UniProtKB/TrEMBL annotation:
SUPFAM superfamilies: PLP-dependent transferases. InterPro entries: Aminotransferase_I/II_large, Class-I_PLP-dep_aminotransf, PyrdxlP-dep_Trfase, PyrdxlP-dep_Trfase_major, PyrdxlP-dep_Trfase_small. The keyword Transferase applies. GO terms for molecular function: pyridoxal phosphate binding; transaminase activity. The keyword Transferase applies. This is Aspartate aminotransferase. It comes from the Bacteria. GO terms for biological process: alpha-amino acid metabolic process. Its cofactor is pyridoxal 5'-phosphate. Pfam families: Aminotran_1_2.
Length: 393
């Protein structure tokens, strides 16, 4: 019998999180499940002004087809920001504008992965990357995360025992764990990857959202040519623009442009023009400071409530930025079973096992604090604590 669907689509499950979000579409539920930025910070008025301005000043052009690489002044702006923030010298020609960093992940898969190619991913890893790369049928090798980043011993062994083309990681305030790599670990990872000629795919949508401690240089600083760096406007301006970017060396860029052309010709040019106008007419640093201040408070409220209400056998991460915190329950508990109990208590989270490519993580879960009002956080954590205590006893 001929199968209607391609094998590649039949093999890949729906995003577990998107399915969960449907279940908890009930305003009475306090949801720590989503991965959404706080909409309070969407610059609605400023975007309205920027849209009006580009339409008034250059209306026919901003509605026309454009180049695959993306709007040059926007790429120059991004390059300039990397120099100011990180001292990183990147030419605008090395930046490709994409439909969110999520498209960047797909283009990387399309450009670099043959079926069976070795790919390293953090454990737990970003679900959207697991889904995106799965279409290219790589051989996943997962390396556990420790408190200060990936486990170097396991990484070393994995690189020695497998031919790994890419290592995908999120060194700043990782999704789902909230973990950040220390500077020493970044240097060590860069050295190991250099020696094994493995490309680091450095996904950094949260890097600007640090509310505790000092910024740490990107791994791109330590592994210049062999890093592909992804960035996004989703968490610092608004996700609906679907605008992100990929930074890579010119030889890689030439191929990625072909992949992007075949996918969509170019990203929404009007959106690129509006966001650029918004960026040059407003103080984005001030805007980001406000986001960080509130996320910092929400995170503090969550951490303090966990300390107060959760039983001592529960461990959790204490993120220095970003939007997520990771909970590890005693081994014998299942976060999937806990999820059903939690919904009855009107609180939701994301069970951790979908973030593992090896079927583990059954006793883990992810909590989001950025999209829950401060006063609701304590109430939600209290309910969750009740459910956990009941499950333990
Ligand atoms: N990478 C990571 C680690 C993420 O958490 C997200 C958003 N959930 C993305 C990429 C995709 O972001 P966007 O496509 O909106 O830029």
């Amino acid at each position: 019998m001929r199968s209607l669907f391609a094998k590649r689509i039949n093999d890949i499950p729906k995003s577990f999180i998107r399915e969960i979000l449907k279940v908890i579409d009930n305003p009475e539920i306090i949801s720590f499940a989503g991965g959404l930025p706080n909409p309070e910070f969407f610059p609605v008025e400023e975007i309205k002004e920027a849209s009006n301005k580009v339409l008034a000043e250059d209306g026919t052009n901003v509605l026309q087809y454009s180049t695959t690489e993306g709007y040059l002044p926007l790429r120059e702006y991004i390059a300039d920001r990397y120099f100011k923030k990180q001292g990183l010298k990147i030419s605008p020609e090395q930046i490709l504008i994409t439909n969110g960093s999520q498209q960047g992940l797909d283009l990387i898969g399309k450009t670099f992965l043959n079926e069976g190619d070795g790919l390293i991913i953090e454990e737990p890893g970003y679900l959207g990357a697991i889904q995106s790369f799965s279409f290219y049928r790589p051989k996943f090798n997962s390396v556990p995360l420790l408190e200060d980043g990936v486990d170097l011993e396991v990484l070393k062994d994995t690189l020695a025992e497998n031919d790994c083309k890419l290592f995908y990681g999120v060194p700043n305030f990782q999704n789902p764990s909230g973990i950040t790599y220390s500077d020493n670990k970044r240097r060590a990872v860069a050295k190991l990857l250099e020696e094994s000629n493995t490309i680091f795919v450095e996904d950094d949508p949260y890097g600007e959202l640090r509310f505790i401690g000092e910024d740490i240089p990107l791994i791109k600083n330590y592994l210049k040519d062999n890093t592909i760096l992804l960035g996004s406007f989703s968490k610092i301006v608004a996700p609906a623009f679907r605008l992100g970017w990929v930074v890579m060396s010119m030889d890689k860029m030439e191929k990625a442009i072909v992949a992007k052309q075949a996918s969509d010709l170019h990203s929404n040019y009007f959106a690129q023009r509006v966001i650029y106008q918004y960026l040059i007419d407003n103080d984005i640093d001030q805007h980001i400071s406000r986001i960080k201040e509130v996320y910092g408070r929400q995170r503090e409220m969550m951490v303090n409530s966990i300390k107060e209400y959760f039983p001592p056998e529960i461990s959790f991460t204490e993120p220095e930025g970003g939007m997520f915190l990771w909970i590890t329950l005693p081994k014998e508990l299942s976060s999937l079973e806990l999820f059903d109990m939690a919904i009855k208590e009107k609180v939701a989270f994301v069970p951790g096992s979908p973030f593992y490519v090896n079927g583990q993580g059954k006793n883990t879960l992810r909590l989001n604090y950025s999209n829950v009002a401060e006063e609701k956080i304590e109430e939600g954590i209290k309910s969750l604590a009740k459910v956990i205590k009941r499950a333990i006893n």
